[in-house]
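fyi for ur records
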Amino acid sequence: MLKKIFAFSLWFFSSCVMAKSYETEHFTIEYDDNVPKSAVEQLAKRVKDNREVVLAYLKQTGEYTGTPIKEPLVVYISKQRRTPYQNWNTIHIPEQRVLNTFLENDQEHAGMAVIHELTHVYAVSAYRKNKKNGYEDRFYDDGLAVFMQHRFGESPGYPDFGKDLYRAVLEKSIEYGGLIPLKQTEEVRHSARTGLGRQLAYLQEGAFTQFLIENYGLDAYWKLYKGQQPKDVTGKSFAQLERQWSALMNSFKI
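which gave:
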């Protein structure tokens, strides 16, 4: 037992020693010893630039009053994560994607989705606190994050890979066998047995966000984001908006 405790303590101490931090004015990057400082510095610049873009866009509407996440931003270069991920004030960026982007210049296999994850930190919808089957309702949150990454990301990435969101929805919905009802996208995104269903769910949420902003403006969209009823904001029910959006998606030709 003592040997096991000693071994665990040694492992824990080694892990703590290995962890490094890179401090900036608005965030901290945490990384392991094997990640070159040059890659960390380049990631820091990317995060700084993307953070400014996200906040500048959100502040265009007077409806935006900041984020409930008050803890300082942490960017964690993760060995464990295979995909980018946000958890409260921390965004996890897969280590291999960081190395691919800044050391190998391999944009095809990078896909850090920094803007997507920063959007989750700085824009928290009224619905995220709602939980169903153990997961948060991120219909509006992921819709905005997909839209922001598509519009402002440095390189093409998941789920649209540089394609127009509306056309991407049409193409993937044909493969899938039709559009997913918007109120079911979160369920499909979490339970899809294939990557196609998950991808289409993300695409639809992003495309619906784009549709709302284009047709009703960012101020109106933000009222929806903060929990106001669609009828009160747009004069149309959610079902009516979905029908209008679906007709637009189906009007595109491949």
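The chain has ten helices and seven strands. thats all i got for now
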